[in-house]
Amino acid sequence: MLISIHMMLVHFLFFSPDDLFALAGLYKSGNIKELENFVMGVVTNSGTQYYLVIDNIENFGNFAESLFDGNTFDNDMINAYKNMYVKAYKITTTNSVSSNENQFLNYLSQNSSGLKLFKGSDNMKNWQLLEKDKNGNVIPKDCP
Is-above-0.90 flag for pTM? Predict the structure, then answer.
């Protein structure tokens, strides 16, 4: 089955390590038909919605490869990754939405993920690209 456009998840937190491993798995198995059009979304229990899009295919490919041991997931690696996600990047259920956005953007950047993060309005009709300014503040930019 080739996925060409959307994948939507419902979460209590944010994009989880499991989501990132699932995305990497789809890529590694060749199940994303059009990388430049792929969108992965989550809706959190706070009602906040996010999309991840692949912005740099080469960086994303390297990022996806880094999550695997050969062509399979290693459970010890997954557990270590989940632990790092919380301890090193501080993306937790107790954080505010803005704190998790900030930390997740750090995570994407520091891992050269090739992914961009978008945040949707309550009705999901308007989206903003979330980026960081030179001072490390999260800056939402309206999408045309």
Answer: no
